[in-house]
Amino acid sequence: MTDATPELAIGIDIGGTKIAAGLVDTEGRIRVRRETPTEPGEGPAAVIARTAELVRAFDGEVGESLGVGVGVAGLVRARDGVVAQAPNLRWEDVALGPELSAALGGRAVRLDNDANAAAVGEVWAGAARGRAHVIVITLGTGVGGGLILDGSVYRGARSVGAELGHITVDPDGPVCGCGNPGCLEALASGTAVGRIARERLVTAPDVASSLRSGAIEAVTARDVVAAAEAGDAFSKALLGETGVWLGVALASFVNLFNPEAIVIGGGMAAAGDLILAPARREMERRAFTAALEGVEIVLATLGNDAGIVGAAALVLDPKLAGLAFAREARDTPLTPAEAIEALTFHCGSNPNVEDPRWEQGFLSMLRPYKGLRPEVYDHLVQCVRTLLPHLKSAPKLDRRVISSLWGICHLARYWGLHPDGMLRRNGLITEEDQATLERWIEELSYDLMSILDGGEGAEGPLA
Ligand SMILES: [Zn+2]
Fold first, then answer.
1. 134 FRET partner, CA 20 to 30 A, in 69, 314, 375, 377?
2. 3-class secondary-structure state, position 365
3. What is the Å distance from ligand 1's center to 255 Cα?
């Protein structure tokens, strides 16, 4: 990777049966593709070693160490690269990001769950390319979701948000795999449509359907879609109902997020207007007119490649990928004592705020910024000077102040923004990354000062 924007990255999709990887360019094209069996039974270390091997195989073609983005099914803490839970891999608390990075000699690795990666892919290079406010719903075996808000993927306070498939659409509906009755997933996933079709064919034996020509217990959602397309009224009605449930959920999402586009992907999307037309009608019946204005429902275009392409986009488009540590730092409620502790840890100074050395140490945290544009640097000095008296009366500290400050510390310490800093020297951070971070620091510090002045804080990109 050079100082210029990286033009290639490696995107990896780790599933229960295979690890699929692609060399992806900035147009979202997969130039080279590789895969290897996951073999989760061999344990996380073996899976990580196999993934590293897969990554190194690309080096022969491009002759350089590209950044790596990884999507994995499960609960993923994007901020620290830990897979908290991945049932199909039987993983718990696996530090996949750091361990894969170590196995690759310290190469940059960004991690997210597969649904977020797929959503990022569709917005970066697929059906909603270039849009800033997008809901992505994948109607597959389950119902996955991703939220792109204000141009960045939204993960929530603990990175486990945007589970759009587990919103309740029918309080008395069938019990979902998650245990809750009436989730969208229990009514509109491929699994659900197959199950409902089989149940009805059995419980209403006199209703005619072309699905009866084969074994009822073998009927799948795919058969239902094919039969509906061929004109089977029973199947068309069932997909119509599926569309209505989807529309109920979409109406809530539209009122909540006022998206520009809703992308529908996954196997059930093959049903096209058989599902989408009733979904659109139901959504329009329920949602606010103002929020509906201009909302497009579009079909996903990347198909099974969305995971690989989106994982690469985590590296190639840091704004869209959302620099999670900073966002979450703002979302994490800290007591003033915890904040002082965290700041002390990050600034390497004395924990006693009354000690004059604390002030000195605190100002020294600005040293990494000396290579930034002078106005950004001056701004930060001013910001810290304004803040110090407030720090000495810790109970006055508002969580937003602490979070902003903590974000700044993270940016300074972990990203080594100085042009001669470690990350720049090793080509792990591009000029574009640096420009983005500079802008964020500037906005964080504006935000901070505005709060200290008694305001609400500016709505920066991290708000
Ligand atoms: Zn559920």
1. 69
2. coil
3. 21
Q: How far does the centroid of ligand 1 lie from the alpha carbon of residue 197, in Å?
A: 20
Residue 404 CA to ligand 1 centre (angstroms): 34
Q: Which of 123, 140, 444 is nearest to 302 (CA)?
A: 123
Choose which CATH entry (3.30.200.20, 3.30.420.40, 3.40.640.10, 3.40.50.2300) describes domain 131-300: 3.30.420.40
Question: CA 24, CA 45: separation in Å to the nearest integer?
Answer: 26
The class of domain 8-120 in CATH terms is alpha beta
**Measured between alpha carbons, how far is residue 154 from residues 118, 150, 229, 309, 443 in Å?**
13, 9, 36, 18, 19
Nearest to 296 by CA among 250, 242, 248: 250
CA of 189 relative to ligand 1 center, distance in Å: 11
Tell how far the Cα of 168 is from the centroid of ligand 1, in angstroms.
8
Residue 437 Cα to ligand 1 middle (Å): 37
> What is the pTM (predicted TM-score) of this model?
0.68
Structure tokens at 13: 């999709």
Residues in contact with 388: Cβ distance below 8 Å, sequence separation at least 6, in sequence order: 359, 362
Q: Cα(60) to centroid of ligand 1, in Å?
A: 44
Q: How far is the CA of 63 from the centre of ligand 1 (A)?
A: 45
Ligand 1 centre from 2 Cα, in Å? 44
pLDDT tens digit at each of 463 positions of the chain? 333 456 899 999 998 889 999 999 989 999 999 999 999 999 999 999 999 999 999 988 887 778 899 999 888 888 778 899 888 899 999 999 889 988 988 787 889 999 999 999 999 999 999 999 999 999 998 899 999 999 999 988 877 889 999 999 999 999 998 899 999 999 999 999 999 999 999 999 999 999 999 999 999 999 999 999 999 999 999 999 999 999 999 999 999 999 999 999 999 999 999 999 999 999 999 999 999 999 999 999 999 899 999 999 998 887 788 743 333 333 333 444 554 554 544 444 344 555 555 555 555 555 555 555 566 566 566 666 666 665 555 444 555 565 566 666 555 544 444 445 545 555 555 666 666 666 666 666 666 666 556 555 444 333 3
Phi, psi of 75 (to 5 degrees): -90, 115
Distance, CA 190 to ligand 1 centroid (Å)?
Answer: 14
Cα 173 to ligand 1 centre (Å)? 11
Q: Say how many Å lie between the CA of residue 279 and the centre of ligand 1.
A: 19
